[in-house]
Amino acid sequence: SPENAQGVYSDQAQEVVYIYERAEGKGVTVRYEDEQGNKLAESEVLIGNLGDRYETKAKEIKGWKVKQSPENAQGVYSDQA
């Protein structure tokens, strides 16, 4: 809180300023799986602030190719997991 968050009214104008920063959003977990849900590579967790954009990319996995990219491969960090 600002030093002058509490005070006494006077004949001089006063200003109280609160400084904010964006809160951290919920992490975005990126999983790499086959069609049966078997793990092909280690998951990654992306962290960012609420409202910031994120972008994921498919990993190169030997012997595998990407069949389908998820609709949420790009998005915005939110307060929802």
UniProtKB/TrEMBL annotation:
Gene3D superfamilies found in the cross-reference section: Putative peptidoglycan bound protein (lpxtg motif)
Assigned keywords, A-Z: Repeat
Residues in the signal sequence: none
One Pfam family named in its UniProt record: MucBP
The keyword Repeat appears for this protein: yes
InterPro entries attached to this UniProt entry: MucBP_dom (IPR009459)
Superkingdom to which the source organism belongs: Bacteria
Residue span(s) of domain MucBP: 2-21, 28-80
Protein name: MucBP domain-containing protein
Protein species of origin: Enterococcus faecalis
